[in-house]
Amino acid sequence: xxFFTAMDVSSSAMTAERTRMNMISSNLxxxxxxRTAEGGPYKRKDAVFSAAPMASKFNAALNRLSQKDPTGxxxxxxxxxxxxxxxxxxxxxPDADAQGYVALPNVNVVEEMADxxxxxxxxxxxxxxxxxxxxxxxxxxxxGR
Length: 145
Prior knowledge:
The chain is an alpha+beta fold. The chain is built from three helices and four strands. Helix 1 (about 5-30) runs antiparallel to helix 3 (about 110-140).
């Protein structure tokens, strides 16, 4: 794997984790939104990742010989959680039903915070990998001195 492929793999992972963080932020921001354009409460969203080939045409030909195609990651879909909304008794709320229950989003703030920590750590790990690839390339250039 060459320097640019290593950087492409790390950058694809950072882009995917950034998308995941955006979904988490959206979930947290809408944790109490009882109305949406589609009707009903906000539904939790999540990013679905998939392995994605990262090699250039030349590298792909070389890697096919050694059976080592480097893969990055791509966001292939944004899904909505299909779990039912939380029901909370609040007859004074404008969105309460006839029995006085309000349908709140299916967002668990504690779970979202744990996901946020996980996304942050994955992003940091990929930044470290990109920095290591850069450092290795610089060390290689120093050999010519």
